[in-house]
Amino acid sequence: MLLEALSDRDDQAITARQVFVLTCIYWLYVTAADLVYAEAMRIYVSDFTKEWVFYPWQHRTLQHILMFPLLVLCYETAMRLGWRPVWRRAAAQFLIALGFSLSMFWLARLSTLIFHVTIGMALDFSGPLTRGQWATWVSTTVTTFLAYSFGLALLTGIATVRKAQSLQLRNSELRRDWAGARLAALRSQLSPHALFNVLHAIQARIASEPEAAQTLVASLGDLLRGLLRAGERDYSLLREELDFVRLYLELQAGRFTDRLAVQLPAGQDIPAVWLPSLILQPLVENAVVHGLADHSGPVSVRVTYELTSDRLELRVENSTGSSANRPSQGIGLHNIRERLAVQFAGGASLDSKRVDHSNWVATLRLPILREWRGMPEAPQVL
Questions:
Q1: CA 253, CA 255: separation in Å to the nearest integer?
Q2: Rounded to the nearest 5 degrees, what angle is found at the Cα of 212, between the Cα atoms of 208 and 218?
Q3: Do 144 and 101 contact (CB within 8 A), yes or no?
Q4: What global pTM score does this model have?
Q5: What whole-number distance in Å separates Cα of residue 125 and Cα of residue 133?
Q6: Phi/psi at 265 (5° precision)
Q7: Could you read off the pLDDT tens digit of each residue along the chain, which spans 382 residues?
Q8: CA–CA separation, 354 vs 246, rounded Å?
């Protein structure tokens, strides 16, 4: 029932004013064509018979003027009625068209009567219809029915095109809203992963190293502010993403001072390119978590980027145990691939794999979203 109601409403993609204007233009064309044809036939017949057979152009003009309000009413009713369901609406549309077509003959007689009253024009009818008048009624009905049907098809076609454009626009809006909601959901799934281990790091140091714990709490506040800023928009500058990752890694380095060493690009010449917000953090988190879990030795996490004229490549590399087997489809990686599919539609990619017996590399390739400048500097050891 809801779909049928929506369909009926969609059939009204053309307004009553537009129906009136289009009907006026179309009927002017029909009137002009009828006048030209009738005048040509009157001249042609008069050359042979020397008699007046066809009505003069003033008569036919009045006839079409009288028909115009009825035509507008029929077209507006037809457009409101629509065509669904076809088996029911088609019969009603046929009856409207037939009623209009049948009235054409009688309005011609009405125009004759008006001219008789106003200018004394002789009447050509009295009493019942003659055989010729019956034949004229039938032929007028058929030709008028065809003209009416063509106009209705024209209006229906225009309404269909407008409805298709409206549906396309509505579909684009829904897809955009859906994509935005999907991205917001993915970002909300990443946020707990960014904080969970940090809270454990602070908790572990409150009793034994309260001053260090306070420093970590201050860093956590900065991390939360960065997280809120990044979560409110779809894209961030590369510098902002690296600053956010730096805060996270500083917190982790404060927890694992003897085991974790991190490297990040340094300097003020980081190019002003844009990338999806919080897209880099889960890769760094995976590097830290899995790197520390794979073995008991020191772990190195290194973040680098490479920029070309049309592509940004981000690499997160971490040392790992020689026998470690990391899953390639964790929650973080799955969410990143989901976001890339929504925001770039196949124009970006993520690879995560072991490159040798002691290193694991996650490579994120993105299209350039803004002009770039400068070159990456050597990583700085924190």
A1: 5
A2: 135
A3: yes
A4: 0.50
A5: 9
A6: -60, 140
A7: 333 333 444 445 678 888 999 999 999 999 898 888 877 877 777 666 665 556 677 778 888 888 899 999 999 999 888 888 888 888 899 999 999 999 888 888 888 788 767 766 666 666 677 777 788 888 888 988 999 999 999 999 998 888 888 888 877 776 776 666 665 655 555 446 556 766 776 777 787 778 877 877 887 787 777 766 666 677 888 988 888 888 888 877 877 777 888 889 876 778 888 888 888 888 888 888 888 886 778 889 999 999 888 899 999 999 887 665 655 566 778 778 888 887 888 889 999 888 888 889 999 999 988 754 444 444 454 4
A8: 24
Is residue 19 a contact partner of residue 93, using CB atoms and an 8 Å limit?
A: no
Q: How far are the Cα atoms of 12, 16, 27, 100 from residue 75, in angstroms, in the given order?
A: 12, 9, 12, 10
Region for 120 from its dihedrals, namely left if φ exceeds 0, alpha if ψ lies in -120 to 50, beta otherwise: left
Give the dihedral sign, CA 156/158/162/167.
Answer: positive
Contacts of 53 (CB under 8 A, 6+ apart): 41, 42, 45, 46
Within 10 Å of residue 47's Cβ, how many Cβ atoms?
8
Indicate if the alpha-carbon torsion angle 221, 225, 228, 230 is positive or negative: negative
State the Cα angle at 259 between 219 and 297, rounded to 5°: 155
What residue ranges define each of the domains in the chain, with the CATH number in brackets?
2-173 (no CATH), 207-381 (3.30.565.10)
Q: How far apart are CA 291 and CA 297, in angstroms?
A: 9
Helix axis angle, 210-231 to 131-206, nearest 10°: 170
Smallest Cα–Cα separation from 166: which of 333, 9, 318, 359?
A: 9
User: 265, 304 in Cβ contact below 8 A?
Assistant: yes
Peptide bond into 69 cis (omega under 30): no
